Amino acid sequence: MTTVESKCRITFWAIKKSWPDAFSRFALWYMGWSSLDRRTTLPMLPWLVAEIRRKSEKNESGPAQAREVQLYLSPPLIRCVPANSNNPSVFIFEHKAQFISRFIHNSHDLSYFAYLIRSQPDNPESEMACHVFKACDPNQVPEVISSIRQVSKAALKEESKPRQDSDESFYNSQKFEVLYCGKVTVNHKKAPSTLIDDCIDKFRQHEIERKRLRLLNGQRSSTEAPVEFIMGDDPLSSSLCKVDELEPNLIEEELSEKGNGNLDLTSYSSTGSLLGVFPECILEDSDFGEQHASEPNNVQPSDADKNRTMLFQVGRFEVNLISPDTKSVVLEKNFKEISSCSQGVKQTDHFGFICRDVVESGPAQYVCYVFQCASEYLVDEVMLTLKQAFTTAAALQSSKNQIELCEACPMHDLHKLCERIEGLYPPRAKLTIQKYLSELSDNEQVNIFERVQKMKPASDHEENELVILHLRQLCETKQKSHVHIGEVPQQNASGSTMTSDNSSAGRNKLDALKNKARSSLTSSLENIISRVCVCFFDILVCICCFADHMDGRELLPLSPRALNQDQNPQVSPLTPEQGFGGEKGRRSPADYRALWKKAIHQQILLIRMEKENQRLEASRDELHIRKMKLDYQEVCQCSKEVQALWDRKLSSPCRTKVQWDKEEIHGAVCQGVPKSRRGEVWLLLSQQYRLHHRLPQRQQPPETPYQDLLKQLTAQQHAILVDLGRTFPTHQYFSTQLGAGQLSLYNLLKAYSLLDTEVGYCQGISFVAGLLLLHMSEEQAFDTLKFLMYDLGIRRQYRPDMISLQIQMYQLSRLLHDYHRNLYTHLEEHEICPSLYAAPWFLTLFASQFQLGFVARIFDLLFVQGTEVIFKVALCLLSSHEGEILECDGFESIVDYLKSTIPTLTHSQMEETITKATEMDISKQLHAYEVEYHVLQDELSDAPPPSEDSDRLDKLEKANAQLKKQNMDLLEELQAARLKIQTLEGSMESFLSRESKMKHLIRSLEQEKASYQKTIERMHSSLPSDTMAEVEMTQLKSSTNRKAKETACKKP
């Protein structure tokens, strides 16, 4: 039954995210809603909308109660609130916008529209509801629909944001590194247990034969090989071989053997898709003799000289094979195409699966793809994963709400009727409907006719709507008791089946089989005709290609239009007299030769233009990727003078052979490094470092080429694949799962894990390698990573024992103790050791937590000063936040500040930190602390082992604690004594300098006094005697008066 609500006036409030504080208001009529049957299809929806509209307009459901409401659109909710209510919590209906599945815009009346939404979104078996609206102005309908879609998209975008807890989408897919061995064609979809072993034997025989032929002829392949080569399209092999890499002698062989049938040549054109293929030689073994039905028939091994390592991805419903070399998917197979999987019996590290391979020319065949893993354990894991994936996919497929329909279902007949009358004029649609009604029983026809006439339709369109309404009700009723084709009819209580239903089911089944046979025959005839046309067109093309061997009158290629001259008399055939350009008169062979020559030159020009376009497109893509890589804020931007300085240094011809001055290089790096040329600068700095510091021969890395390492399988594949999604997850270059960035990073980490077997792979190396990949190519990044690991010695901290990391943590603790005593004491009081917060700084070189521009500047200094820079930057970061850390009064608050707040540096703070780090020198202290650590470790190792007695152990622990405390006290006293000695020495030096100054002053004063006395004596000798007496009396009186005044002042 259909439930329809009465119409009501409704008001839309749409919040537009593009313009804040802007609202759109739409006045609409709400016509009502209706629930949908699960079998309702798209052609039926317009008739359902018309039914809701008609019932609402004619008030068939009762008295209409129109009221104005407000519909608020705010992600993610759509809420309908009465207009006269000021409380938005009181609403008529509410649902999420992202659950709207479809909009319907009525073509007969443009003012009506509707949308479908599931009543219970979490339950796939719940019914759909159709809400119908009418706009006052038809032009408002697109705006209303667009506003609702905008809210829905915003809600979906919010839901699609990645969550922090989903580091790796291994729930949906698991990945394994495999080595592609080749593929074979089998006759059956089920293979024997020895198929994989037989395929491996054939591959090895082919490889031995190819090596033998190469040694005989001195070439990659021999033109006199005793095997038959066939050109084919293999997506896996295409990723290993390019068109321009095909051997010239092979192409010559193709041209020479085209007519003898020994070679089947296919097109060299690419399909243009991601799974595009290039032709490659496939070995077809002809020495099988009597074979098993599932034994390998057509064997196609892969090229051993190419990189055949792939990533085997097992998804929820498909299997993908991804090439890290070409950064593309080379094979994609759905689970329903895979018939079986098997593991080798003797070759336990090999496995394969048989799948259906559709060939353009000819029927589908079964192909077995064979792969190799690094170990038998990985093959077991792959087989288990495939088994679980198949089981899960089958369960998910069966749990889906599948709508059971057959050719005889009443709802299916109604669907086909609605398809036929869709878009027809009402009179023609009425005729089609009457033809359908004639196939019903007499009672059903009379019932529908009486109901329609009772409602008195005013037009053919309204009559059609009423007829479809009653037909839908009739079909829904009949569908409930319908028995599908192939099902057993249910029995009633007496145990007898309903004969009428059984006969109708048999009749319907017969009709369905007849329709199926008719459609199958039609499609078969169409395929035959199309195949004949294609073959005939190929014959015409061949005639055109070999026209130069024919008579002059037959040189012209046939045209498809010439074939239809009998059917179309107005089209006259092209004659030799008319020629190509419409000129009259016969052309000579020289003219045709000139025309063919011109066409060939034009084709060559087109090929050259296409290559140039491809080159320009590749250059544009490269620039886009480079821009994507360098998408970070630079710290300490370079001036034009510094950029010119680096340009001169990078263009120097002897930069890799002549040692430059260290101070000059250090000064240039401190001034800044241009971001666009940072990768080149790092390579230059690494070369200069190697010129100044030559590693001993036993400490140098193996000289294995990067490409050779990529062809091998690594046992560290699982750890590397897990960390791919965790390395720079917010950076655009690495954010795409198994994109170009992640695949390049996988190649780099895999190659190093194979090169350095002692270290292998350790968490943290991925961030170092990722930062290198942002500034240079894979091979350059690999060479630079070797420089960091071996020449600078960073690999020591990634060793399994982690002793180097422990030494670094001790050194950082001692630096805090000597330079920032209050901060050290505060951290020790809360039992926060450097390994809690500084271990990621050292293992990832600050790349996992800090901004890329800041980390790039640290790398600039790292290439010049070595690992000492890490301690400098860590010490500067802690010292600049010392006050804030001291204010934190708990373990959690301190650790949270160290891990969350410190990495969020401002641009000025980053520049200040880099500047302080360049001016600091702690190399002597670091060396002393390292020696101190080793001494302490030796003392601990020489100490006797602890007794088993618990009391003695407690006493020793207490004594150890007291000794540590005494040691720390003595260290503090020693530090205080040193400071006091330095203070006293400074004071003594100041006193000595003051004393020397005073002596010099006294000496000068004495000289001045002596000169004054001599002057007075000369004056006495030059004055008369009476004048001297008057002077003496005057001096005596003045002294007497002065004494009297002093005595008077002393009295009260």
TrEMBL record:
Residues 672-866 form the Rab-GAP TBC domain. Residues 564-587 are annotated as: Disordered. Its main location: cytoplasm. Residues 953-1022 form a coiled coil. Keywords: Acetylation, Coiled coil, Cytoplasm, GTPase activation, Methylation, Phosphoprotein, Repeat. It holds the Pfam family PID. It is found in: Cytoplasm. Gene3D superfamilies: 1.10.10.2750, Pleckstrin-homology domain (PH domain)/Phosphotyrosine-binding domain (PTB), putative rabgap domain of human tbc1 domain family member 14 like domains, Ypt/Rab-GAP domain of gyp1p, domain 3. One of its GO terms (biological process) is cellular response to insulin stimulus. The keyword Cell membrane does not apply. Residues 564-575 have a biased composition (Polar residues). One of its GO terms (molecular function) is GTPase activator activity. The keyword Cytoplasm applies. Transmembrane segments: none annotated. GO terms for cellular component: cytoplasm. Residues 26-158, 319-390 form the PID domain. InterPro entries: DUF3350, PH-like_dom_sf, PTB/PI_dom, Rab-GAP-TBC_dom, Rab-GAP_TBC_sf, Rab_GAP_TBC_domain. This is TBC1 domain family member 4.
